[in-house]
Design a protein that fits this description.
Blueprint lengths: L1 H23 L1 E6 L7 H16 L4 E6 L10 H7 L4 E5 L22 H21 L2 E8 L4 E4 L13 E4 L2 H10 L2 E4 L5 H6 L5 E4 L1 H6 L8 E3 L7 E7 H5 L3 H35 L3 E3 L3 H34 L2
Parallel strand pairs: 1-2, 1-3, 6-7, 6-8, 9-11
Antiparallel strand pairs: 3-10, 4-10, 5-8, 5-9
Helix pairs in contact: 2-9, 4-10, 5-10
Bound molecules: pyroglutamic acid.
Pyroglutamic acid (PCA) binds next to helix 7.
Length: about 325
């Protein structure tokens, strides 16, 4: 009897203790789609460690890079449903759900870092509102470096892309392929190397960063530095998970997020230069587009902006007007 009472007391002590720890520490899983070495993922790791430090370990964020927890197109819904408390998405992937998400995926609308920041300012209030309706909070965004075209053969004009198997990552990159007569196949970054190795695709439009991440120089020879657009990644958190934090912890998250946004932009610019050098060092020809190729792609951009405005309606027009205001 004596022993039994003792063990019961010990058991409840353990229970009480673990309940205490559980309430003192919150753990978030953050699903991300790009490799751990990618600058977005490195920035996320820094963000997680900043939050850990600022909260003295009260909020532990585990970053699951490389689409190891959810595949890129699934991450948004996983955060919405709370299967992952947080996640990193690329807005352009969700254009079919709501056109405003796709504004930064339109060729030659915002085609420099400065323009991309300006476009973001125009998108941001609408996006924050939409995400709130969807049960999420926007923490920060970081633009990818400018997008160019990778091919096996030299390109003089868009006509050289006819029939080419083109890897797309978003509705807009598929639409580009259709407009130039290439064959779009949607493949996310995590599967890009394999798709190239097996011949499923033989060209793509992406950044120098992804070119290096996926070692595109192993299969493709040319990179045309089109500087066509700078799609943005966004880090989101489930609203309930965020609301469940105490105020000081929320503030620490928001502060670390603001720092990550600034740091991420600087990293993107740096990585843009570095990765184009790395492509060259690995035998890739990094070239400016010919005037014809540039003119052809600009035309594609004009068509896509027109189509986008038709679908995005007055809301879309308000974004473009705000963006184009001097
Ligand atoms: N890399 C990602 C999206 C944009 C980019 O530069 C990709 O190719 O999937």
């Amino acid at each position: 009897m004596q022993r039994r009472i003792f063990s019961l007391t010990a058991a409840s002590a353990v229970l009480l203790l673990s309940a205490g720890i559980a309430s003192a520490q919150t753990k978030w899983d953050l699903a991300a789609a790009y490799p751990a070495s990618n600058f977005h993922s490195v920035n996320l790791a820094q963000f997680a460690s900043d939050v850990d430090q600022a909260t003295a370990g009260k909020l532990k964020i585990t970053v699951h890079a490389g689409a190891s927890l959810f595949k890129a197109p699934e991450i948004k819904r996983a955060v919405q449903g709370g299967q992952a408390q947080a996640g990193e998405i690329i807005f352009a992937n969700f254009q079919n759900e709501w056109q405003i998400y796709g504004a930064d995926g339109l060729p030659f609308l915002a085609d420099s870092y400065d323009a991309s920041v300006k476009l973001y300012q125009a998108q941001k209030p609408l996006i924050e509102k939409k995400l709130a309706e969807q049960g999420m909070v926007l923490l920060y965004t970081v633009a990818w470096p400018p997008q160019g075209i990778y091919t096996k053969k030299p390109l003089n004009s868009a006509a050289d892309l006819k029939g080419v198997k083109w890897r797309a990552y978003s509705p807009a990159t598929s639409r580009i392929a259709e407009l130039v007569g290439a064959q779009p196949v949607t493949v996310q970054a995590a599967e890009l190397s394999q798709a190239l190795a097996t011949g499923v695709v033989e060209s793509t439009m992406t950044s120098g960063a992804t070119g290096v991440d996926s070692k595109l120089f192993e299969h493709l020879k040319y990179y045309y530095d089109m500087q066509a657009w700078l799609p943005k990644n966004a880090v989101l958190v489930n609203k309930k998970a965020f609301d469940d934090l105490d105020k000081p912890t929320q503030d620490a998250v928001l502060k670390a997020a603001a720092a990550a946004e600034v740091r991420g932009l600087a990293a993107s610019k740096r990585v843009n230069t570095e990765t184009l050098e790395k492509l060259k060092a690995n035998g890739m020809q990094v070239l400016p587009p010919s005037p014809q190729l540039k003119a052809d792609m600009k035309k594609v951009g004009d068509t896509m902006l027109k189509e986008w405005l038709e679908k995005a309606g007055p809301e879309g027009k308000s974004v473009i007007d705000a963006f184009q205001k001097p």
